[in-house]
Q: What sequence folds into this?
């Protein structure tokens, strides 16, 4: 799991992080990362680059902006539909309006509550995340593991893989986030029949292609995402897409 804490009061931030670490130790729960910050932009950048199960503890008022936490939660929900969001705040009066932000907040935790009460709320949030993960119907996942990286993302979220300026470092472009890891495009293409090396710098997920522009030498996935395709690779790409579509239609 990945834990995100957005709090602009440094003392309260440190206090909450300490309680969270105590809970993890007591319950023997492991966290891949704990991101603690008072900067909404920094938190959103980390969320975009983070995969797997996430839990968010957000202050509603950040740097004098009373509803900033709600706005950040709304942006988080677009990237992470299944993460657990809890507000830790003095503004519990905002609880009734959270539906307008479509964030599906799990809990509101009052900052001035006794520490034992806050701790129990935090435990409830963690248990909800873990229980949901254990019982939810799993969609098809792309699992990647080597000596450098270990992660999983929904296959339906994958658009394409691209090379970077760093040797053997690959960037996975998903619908809502990015994942950087070490591998080669040749290795990636062999992992699934829906992966296709369209260009020396790109491996695409054929299942998510909406258009191939022959004249422009481009593959389009939506209004935002596209990548190059070598002209000599267009015909085999279309043939493989047709074969895959036929396979799924008859499965």
A:
């Amino acid at each position: 799991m990945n834990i995100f804490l957005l709090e602009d009061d440094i003392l309260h931030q440190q206090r909450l992080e300490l309680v969270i670490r105590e809970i993890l130790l007591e319950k023997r729960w492991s966290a891949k990362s704990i991101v603690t910050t008072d900067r909404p932009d920094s938190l959103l950048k980390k969320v975009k680059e983070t995969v797997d199960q996430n839990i968010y503890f957000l202050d509603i008022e950040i740097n004098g902006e009373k509803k900033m936490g709600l706005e950040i939660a709304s942006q988080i929900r677009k990237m992470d539909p299944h993460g657990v969001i809890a507000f830790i705040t003095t503004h519990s009066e905002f609880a009734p309006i959270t539906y307008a932000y479509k964030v599906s907040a799990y809990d509101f935790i009052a900052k001035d509550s006794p520490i034992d009460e806050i701790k129990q709320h935090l435990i409830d949030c963690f248990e909800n995340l873990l229980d949901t993960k254990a019982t939810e119907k799993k969609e098809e996942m792309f699992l990647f593991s080597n000596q450098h990286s270990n992660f999983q993302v929904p296959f339906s979220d994958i658009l394409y893989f691209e090379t970077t300026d760093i040797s053997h470092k690959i960037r996975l472009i998903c619908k809502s986030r990015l994942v950087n890891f070490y591998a080669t495009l040749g290795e990636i293409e062999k992992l699934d029949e829906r992966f296709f090396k369209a260009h020396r710098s790109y491996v695409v997920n054929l299942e998510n292609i909406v258009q191939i522009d022959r004249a422009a030498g481009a593959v389009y996935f939506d209004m935002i995402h596209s990548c190059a395709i070598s002209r000599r690779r267009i015909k085999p790409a279309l043939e493989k897409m047709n074969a895959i579509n036929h396979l799924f239609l008859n499965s």
Residues 247-251 have pLDDT under 50 and may be disordered. The helical segments are 10-27, 40-48, 68-79, 115-135, 185-189, 231-249. The chain is about 35% helix and 30% strand. The longest helix spans residues 115-135.
